[in-house]
User: Which sequence fits this backbone?
């Protein structure tokens, strides 16, 4: 009696086949529930004890992307145990490809997004870098979803190869026309990831100098000391020799001072030591050397070299000013006069 009931046919399948379908589907759901309720919870507790964020990301990805895909996989596995008509079987297969493509594209974009976020957090969470990475991530998402659509259409039976070939011919023409734009785009990637400079850095490019205000996909904007905005294409910057003063740990300063030829020998020998003492007493400086350098046209020239610890230009000027005041005060005490351009005319009086 029981066997005859299970052999009853409904829509091309026995009642037993429907029971097997339900058992497979419910069994798969139970396995997923056990995995979610036991394994995943234990993984979460372990992740909370670690310092890294990669395990948190993997668990979050499992919950948001992999688990929904497993639920559909359970249904797809169970429904394949039934004998379906061609149309319904094709609809389920197309749905399976669509779901697999959707979740794979999401998984790829999530991994790339986490990679960008990890890179950003390792760079002291720079706000300008975050904006740039979001722009790049947008481009990456367009590419990934574009490839996903192509893959899906190809599985539906569309002749994508001929379409791509046609687009390729037009793409060559577009690429040639947009060559400058593409060069600036790749230069933008180079600036973002290689980071020769950042927003806020003071740089010199050729004869132009100023602080970086904005780094865009095609252009970078710099605010000059005069107040005007300078706009460079990214290719110009990557092809140029850029001097970045923001990253200068110490500034080497060389200056010369001249004293009169009438200065006695013993006072000349004291000048290097006087200079050294003055510089060493100024904060955030490192003395290098001071020497009697040469005989000038109207003065005896001393050359001095020291370092200012820091990159700020105002700090350098304040330091040099303090040194200059100290030198003038000390040399005046010693009776040493600074030289200035003079000419001595000797008149030979004859009868």
Assistant:
């Amino acid at each position: 009696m029981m066997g005859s009931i299970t052999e009853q046919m409904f829509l091309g399948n026995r009642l037993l086949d429907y029971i097997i379908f339900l058992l497979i589907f419910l069994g798969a759901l139970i396995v997923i529930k056990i995995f979610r309720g036991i394994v995943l919870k234990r993984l979460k507790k372990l992740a909370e004890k670690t310092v890294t964020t990669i395990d948190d990301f993997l668990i979050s990805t499992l919950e948001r992307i992999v688990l929904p895909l497993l639920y559909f996989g359970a249904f797809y596995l169970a429904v394949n145990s039934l004998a379906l008509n061609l149309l319904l079987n094709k609809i389920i297969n197309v749905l399976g490809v669509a779901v697999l493509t959707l979740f794979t594209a999401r998984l790829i974009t999530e991994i790339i997004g986490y990679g960008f976020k990890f890179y950003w957090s390792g760079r002291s969470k720079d706000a300008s870098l975050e904006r740039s990475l979001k722009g790049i991530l947008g481009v990456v998402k367009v590419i990934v979803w574009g490839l996903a659509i192509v893959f899906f259409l190809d599985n539906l039976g569309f002749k994508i190869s001929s379409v791509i070939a046609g687009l390729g011919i037009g793409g060559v023409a577009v690429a040639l026309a947009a060559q400058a734009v593409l060069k600036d785009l790749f230069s933008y990637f180079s600036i973002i990831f290689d980071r020769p400079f950042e927003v806020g850095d003071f740089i010199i490019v050729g004869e132009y100098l100023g602080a970086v205000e904005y780094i865009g996909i095609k252009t970078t904007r710099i605010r000059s000391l005069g107040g005007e905005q300078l706009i460079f294409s990214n290719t110009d910057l990557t092809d140029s020799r850029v001097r970045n003063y923001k990253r200068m740990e110490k500034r080497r300063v060389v200056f010369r001072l001249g004293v009169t030829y009438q200065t006695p020998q013993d006072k000349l020998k004291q000048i290097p030591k006087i200079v050294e003492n003055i510089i060493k007493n100024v904060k955030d400086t490192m003395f290098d050397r001071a020497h009697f350098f040469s005989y000038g046209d109207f003065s005896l020239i001393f050359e001095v070299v020291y370092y200012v610890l820091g990159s700020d230009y105002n700090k350098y000027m304040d330091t040099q000013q303090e040194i200059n005041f100290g030198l003038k005060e000390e040399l005046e005490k010693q009776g040493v006069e600074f030289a200035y351009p003079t000419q001595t005319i000797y008149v030979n009086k004859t009868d």
About this structure: The longest helix spans residues 86-121. The two ends are 159 Å apart (CA to CA).
